[in-house]
Write a structure and sequence with these properties.
alpha+beta, five-stranded antiparallel β-sheet, TATA-Binding Protein, globular, single chain, 92 residues
Length: 92
């Protein structure tokens, strides 16, 4: 199961998580009560955790092709966050 993660500098990571959850409101399931927040898609899952001065993002999927697609979708969503410029570097 391929997994990648990114740590993004952010002054208000919780607000970024709120924006992402709104954007992905059509996801199969969003568990905001868990820490990290878990968002399940048909192709895999994304985990979001607010930490002091950063947002931790983890993407996992069942195979490499699906993982690459989901990571791209998450990357696009992060790039589209309002009022935020993020330097995203994914680590395998």
């Amino acid at each position: 199961m391929p997994i990648s993660r990114a740590e993004l500098a952010a002054e208000d990571a919780a607000a970024l998580i709120d924006q992402l959850c709104e954007r992905w409101s059509d996801a199969e399931k969003i568990d905001r009560a868990s820490d990290p927040v878990r968002i399940d898609f048909a192709s895999g899952s994304c985990y979001l955790q607010a930490q002091p001065d950063k947002l931790l993002v983890v993407v996992e999927a069942v195979d490499d092709e699906t993982h690459d697609q989901l990571e791209g979708e998450v990357d696009n969503a992060l790039d589209a966050l309002k009022g935020v410029e993020l330097d995203i570097v994914w680590e395998a």
